[in-house]
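Tokens help. One example:
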Amino acid sequence: MSEINFLVDFGIDNPVYETAKQIRENVFIQEQNIAPEIELDDFDQSSFHIIGFDNDQKTICCARFLQINQQWQIGRVAVLQQFRNKGYAAQMLNYIETYLKEVFKIKFIHIHAQKPVQKFYEKLGYIAFGETDIDAGIEHIWMKKEIE
């Protein structure tokens, strides 16, 4: 696994969001058949967006993170198909956690994870809580992690 680089920006009027949007359209709208109006929602305007890219400037992954009701949440975690299972999502989540800890001094992070990838998040220290629910036609579970 090679190290990747990250860029973070806030809101939707920037190149980071535009690149993340392309990845999300590919992964969620095309691959998972999620409706565009559900995938690209109003929360994007109040979110930090992150993209991961390699040394050749090839974009690999993205996510968003935002604060809702005093709680920081990570969402829309997406890795382009050809880069999956190479550790890039874990690198990105580590980067987000460090960013939130250093910039906002937070101690807990939440994620509304798709049920099929729950074990991936558990390996990174996230703990499931509550009941499963359906979001965009896909089973999800809330998970949280204490950031040390």
